[in-house]
Design goal:
The complex is a heterodimer of chains A (358) and B (299). Chain A has 358 residues and is α+β, with helices and mostly antiparallel strands. Helices cover 25% and strands 35% of the residues of chain A. Chain A has nine helices and 20 strands. Chain A has a six-stranded mixed sheet, sandwiched between helices. Chain B is an all-alpha fold and 299 residues long. Chain B folds into two domains: 65 residues, no CATH class; 214 residues, MetI-like (MetI-like fold, Orthogonal Bundle), CATH 1.10.3720.10. Classes of the chains: A alpha+beta (358), B mainly alpha (299). The structure holds adenosine-5'-diphosphate (ADP) and magnesium ion (MG). Adenosine-5'-diphosphate binds next to β2 and α1 of chain A.
């Protein structure tokens, strides 16, 4: 099923939950809503579910306006962060509740619920109450309950936030696999950009109720349209430096005190002559070598596979990923090489990208 | 040195013993008057007269046990009166439970014009002592008496009328209590049920109410007790013995002219107390729930 949001807005008095959201989800697509806490992800999702009434705007399923439809008439499945299982019902009763409401005959209901439970790997727990299950098992029950009525649209509201890191990884790939197998159009709300990047076909980045960007993970990563997206997507986050880009002898230089790199002409030309602007470069696009900009190691944070090294260049701090084998220590002098084909430029006032504008 | 260490042992033990038993001693002392009171009551119901805690016969000797104070049990009137008491109590359980769990759900979950005002108004209403409302209630009951079908059941001088008044007076508290319980239920669970395909009413009945069973039970007990022992409203709005409840019947035994048989009054009082005590023993845990505001995370 296709989903289309047109100028979707939700306000409570002065509080703005969602602000003129425009977005389209293709049939069978997996879309993530990504943004910090309080940016309106849940609000938007609940409007799509029919729980919240939009203050303004239109929701379309397959081209049909569904604003007036009650949640039960939208044929959606939803998984909540809190699982929202019915504590007084057994796992079987939880999973089969949507079927019971649809007045599915008992035998068929039993078979169907069992099949879904087996698919989720909880077929042997049917007689338990939710309180007798682990967090991961509860999450599977919630997922089973959402899937059992064969919905046209699946909504996830931060479903993995309450799980421990390892389980989160397992469930992540499991949800993704299920979604691909079943081909159900899905909207997945998360504040975890790794989740969004790894699972979604497209990501809608939100901030303060507004849609900041709607693009594929690669595009968000390589061509961030705004400073916010550049800083929010990617881990560890992108470095930002105030620089001035000037043209000298046909080359474009990005410069500040103690810092001077030559940037490719196609990028440099868009940033030159604009006074002080913001340059962005990801830690993984900087390497340590024998040549390059000189800096002093200020902090070393071991991340396991890499060390995240905070290098001081003049007054600026830059995060770099370094091989732990190098054994860098605080106070060491290092030289940094920048992969200049990955450099971003932003206007400090509008915070828009100087490279990727429409 | 050696002697001191030996001395610390018994001294320490004594202090520990005192520390442990002191609370019990204090508790026993403080409930002693109540225990004596009840003992007196029970002894009195089985004797002609009592002197202190001791039953005495006509000659002033200890003895004189009798069952005559309990003779009222053979009078069909007492059972009629008991039934009236039961009717009022159950009427309150059902009436307050039903109305307040519906109203509180709406107040907890839905947004409508006047919701805030309604909430504060009910709280103010609860603050009114019922005595101040007696005259107004009389007019209301009188008005109901004039309505064809309802009149004979819920009008002035009917058990139904008394129950109706008691229910309405108890509703503000019931609504607020229930709202507290509903507020404790997560919204997500309700949303999940709506998305699963339940109607609002089914959500209330199948998903939410089962979660607040302890609250409902507590409210029911609370209302049963206050309905069972109601005096002011039944006393004011009923005449004669036909529609009296137990406390009113008890009052009628105290005559202004003839000498009062206090021992019989004690027996009727005890009779009224027995169901309450049994009830309380089995339900006190649930009753405490009302103050802790609901069961959390229960299975
Ligand atoms: N029922 C509500 N009443 C008033 N304000 C709300 C309500 N729900 C959400 N909000 C506000 O709307 C904003 C977005 O909330 P939400 O959609 O829950 O954010 P997110 O899910 O992205 O963390 C927040 O500022 C929140 O306080
Ligand atoms: Mg949220």
């Amino acid at each position: 099923m296709r989903v289309k949001l047109e100028n979707l807005t939700k306000r409570w008095g002065n509080v703005v939950g969602a602000d003129h959201i425009n977005l389209e989800v293709g049939d069978g697509e997996f879309v993530a809503f990504l943004g910090p806490s309080g940016c309106g992800k849940t609000t938007t999702l609940l409007m799509i579910a029919g729980i919240y009434k939009p203050t303004e705007g239109i929701i379309k399923f397959d081209g049909q306006i569904v604003n007036h439809l009650a949640p039960k008439d939208r044929n959606i499945g939803m998984v909540f962060q809190s699982y929202a299982l019915y504590p007084h019902m057994t796992v079987f009763q939880n999973i089969s509740y949507p079927l019971k409401l649809k007045k599915v005959p008992k035998e068929e209901m039993q078979k169907h619920a069992q099949r879904v439970a087996d698919m989720m790997g909880i077929g042997h727990l049917m007689d338990r109450k939710p309180a007798q299950l682990s967090g991961g098992q509860q999450q599977r029950v919630a997922l089973g309950r959402a899937l059992v009525k064969e919905p046209d649209l699946l909504l996830f509201d931060e479903p993995l936030s309450n799980l421990d890191a390892r389980l989160r990884l397992t469930m992540r790939s499991e949800i993704k696999r299920l979604q691909m197998e079943l081909g159900i159009t899905s909207i997945y709300v998360t504040h975890d950009q790794v989740e969004a990047m790894t699972m979604a076909n497209r990501i809608a980045v939100m901030k303060d109720g507004r849609l900041q960007a709607y693009a594929t993970p690669d595009e968000l990563y390589d061509r961030p349209r705004t400073l916010f997206i550049a800083g929010f997507v990617g881990n560890p986050p992108m470095n930002f430096l105030e620089v001035e880009v000037v043209r000298e002898n046909g080359d474009y230089h990005a410069r500040r005190e103690g810092f001077d790199v030559v940037v490719p002409a196609d990028r440099g030309v868009k940033a030159a002559g604009q006074g002080t602007i913001i340059m962005g470069i990801r830690p993984e696009d900087i390497t340590l070598g024998d040549e390059g900009i000189v800096g002093e190691v200020y902090v070393v944070e071991p991340l396991g596979r890499d060390d995240l090294v905070d290098v001081r260049i003049g007054k600026a701090d830059i995060h770099v990923l370094a091989d732990p084998e190098k054994g860098l220590k605080v106070g060491d002098m290092v030289r940094l090489n920048f992969d200049t084909h990955k450099i971003q430029f932003f206007d400090p006032q509008t915070e828009q990208s100087l490279l990727w504008t429409d | 040195m050696a002697t001191t260490t030996r001395d610390i042992g018994p001294l320490y033990n004594l202090r520990r013993f005192l520390g442990r038993s002191l609370p019990y001693v204090l508790l026993i002392i403080s409930i002693l008057p109540i225990v004596i009171g009840y003992a007196w009551l029970i002894i009195a119901t089985f004797s002609y007269r009592t002197e202190g805690l001791f039953p005495i016969d006509a000659n002033g000797n200890i003895g004189g046990w009798t069952l005559r104070n309990w003779a009222f049990l053979r009078d069909p009137k007492i059972w009629h009166v008991t039934l009236n008491s039961l009717g009022i109590a159950l009427g309150m359980v059902v009436g307050v439970g039903f109305v307040s769990s519906l109203a509180a759900y709406a107040l907890s979950r839905m947004n409508f014009a006047g919701r805030k005002a309604f909430l504060s108004l009910t709280l103010i209403l609860h603050a009114f002592p019922s005595v101040t409302l007696l005259i107004a209630i009389f007019f209301v009951l009188n008005f109901i008496s004039g309505i064809p079908v309802l009149g004979p059941r819920f009008g002035y001088n009917t058990v139904g009328g008394v129950a109706l008044v008691m229910v309405s007076l108890e509703l503000p508290l019931g609504v607020w209590l229930m709202k507290g319980f509903f507020d404790n239920i997560s919204w997500d669970m309700e949303r999940a049920a709506l998305i699963d395909g339940a109607s609002r009413f089914r959500v209330w009945w199948e998903i939410i109410l089962p979660q607040i069973k302890p609250g409902l039970a507590a409210l029911a007990i609370f209302n049963f007790l206050s309905g069972w022992s109601a005096f002011l409203i039944p006393f004011t709005f009923t005449v004669g013995t036909k529609v009296a409840n137990l406390p009113v019947y008890l009052r009628q035994l105290i005559s202004d002219t003839a000498p009062t048989n206090w021992n019989q009054i004690a027996a009727v009082g005890l009779f009224q107390l027995i169901p309450v005590m049994i009830f309380f023993i089995f339900t006190q845990e649930m009753l405490l729930n009302i103050y802790s505001g609901g069961a959390k995370g229960g299975v």
